[in-house]
(P)ppGpp synthetase I, SpoT/RelA
Amino acid sequence: MSEAILYDLNDSAVITSKAGLLFDEVSQYLKSEDMVLLKNAYFFSQEAHSGQFRKSGEPYISHPVAVARILGELHLDTTTLAAALLHDVVEDTGILKEAISKRFGSSVAELVDGVSKLDRIKFQTQADMQVENFRKMLLAMAQDIRVILIKLADRLHNMRTLEVMPQEKQLRIARETLEIYAPIAHRLGLENIYQELQELGFCFSYPTRYKVLLKAIKAARGNRREVVGKILEATKQRLQEAGLDAMVTGREKHLYSIYKKMAGKHLRFSDVLDIYGFRVVVKDVSSCYVALGALHSLYKPIPGKFKDYIAIPKPNGYQSLHSTLLGPYGLPIEIQIRTQEMHHIAEAGVASHWLYKNKGSDTAMDDLYMKANQWMKGLLETLNDSSDSLEFLEHLKVDLFPGEIYVFTPQGKILTLPRGATIVDFAYAVHTDIGNCCVAARINGEITPLRTRLRSGDRVEIITAPAAKPNPVWLSYVATGRARSSIRYFLRTIQYDESIRLGERLLNQALHSFGTSAEAIEPSQWEKLARESGAKSKEALLADIALGKQLAAVIAKRLATPSGESISNIEGNNSITILGTEGMAVKFARCCYPIPGDGIVGLIKKDQGLVIHTQDCSAVIRIKDHKNIDNQLDVIWGTNIDRTFPVNIFMTVVNKSGVLARVTAEIAKADSNIDDITLENDKDYTTMRFILQARDRQHLAQIFRRLKHIGEIVKMGRIRNQ
């Protein structure tokens, strides 16, 4: 070890009793030269935080020491422990990352920087700040997963000492812990940290419920102690009879898991019987299955309550056999059976990678580490695809609460998806391009629509089409953050491209009055105008025109007459031709439902783009009455439009059996689809309102002619200005 990274100890340096415990604990597995680095990190942190105190009144150094002790229990390496001792130095003392790097090496400095918050950056909302913290943390995690291990230990100690904080802050931090940090710990297999974060989060989020439930558990403990003792003895004896050397322990279920079961199934505490579980640890995998058979012969298994996480591990690497048995007095017993290695992974999760790192290669640990890295890179993709803070938090929370199902690809590969996942989620889990082009699927050999929810054991084959594109409707039923963010990213990109094209058409219409076009404008003019308008580029400026954030007439004037001639001198414009193929950049108003053949007007609305109305629409009349015509454009229908448009019609019919069926049949015969039906009944008549698909006014007239043959129709017509 280089002398350059050693801290020059001084006479005033004092090792606190808690720091002494830290050094005693980690010296059991660290080398002597590692201990030198760790002690120097401690003294450096102690001096940096000198004079700083926690809300509890303790010297601040007690916090980084506690964080390092939590990580020491996981047997993490010296670099991680040193970074834990220094994790608040950059954030709270003004010492730069470069100084940490110079004294303790770049690896320690990168970990410290990854954990540090972004307090120096100002954000508009708490959600923005939270997401930027996650963004930085995730970027650092993708380089080194130890960043999140330090962050989780930091959060755990803060939760242990949360009672000194104001109640409002307690609630915010506790909710964030339950929603984000506890699930991350679970996703990384850090079971002990996960359970404690959940318990503390529950305690501070719902203090009254926590106290009531704790009191009930303590009362039930005495009543059930004898029964639990009998089960424990009977289990040990049966395993011995089967020739197994097993370690058997009983455990009480955590308060939060009991509370979730009560809330989810609307149960009283007295109805929750399985508040105790038993863990069996044996020497190898084959012994796990032998133990399972022995215990199934002791107590009857409850059908449907067996899970084999050894054959199909959880995404966080967890492996065990789970079975629920019917014990004495009808008491359900949850049994977990695992090997010693599986037990290490269950307790330490991804941190076990470092526990075994120096003992030679271990395939299970390396595989777990790779899975964790893949998961974090997936989160980064979601983060990059998300347009705003709240959208990313939504994706993150979806991804952190899976409740897994296991489905198979045609090649037999197992994919883990959250419960409620659909074919679209599966397609995006395989590859983003597969998701974007999927049109249907075969589940267990049968053709199935995309919204079908998958079940464990399904074999799924995706059917794609080159011209297929994501449908906005998919967002209403997908269950994974990856699918949701990929769909939104695609739709935003398509809308942006379409907005650029529409913006260019609108601008060319305005520039025509000056005898020029967008192509004739010099690049330097575009750059100058984009800079002055706050747009990133020419393309962004054109998209802003389409979305109503900039007026085409104003932009045209500034491009064509740099000298500043009055905008009022702009002469008449050519009309914009509406083809119906403009995509999401052009919208058709739902108040008047314009169709080809109607006289139309275009209104530019901020953040909506160009909205087409009929000329007699009340929205257009209101604008004219207020002489607010700056955002109004002349538009005309193009020729040879090959698509249908929604149109709103009504009819009043005599109340007779079968009338609705005859009406819908005639509409179908007129080559029209029905999008929506609403009915209003009174004593003798019913008013039906339909949203139909029509190609133009002629097609609508054909529909009305067919409907006139139905004698029960009293009157009918088109609904305008709804």
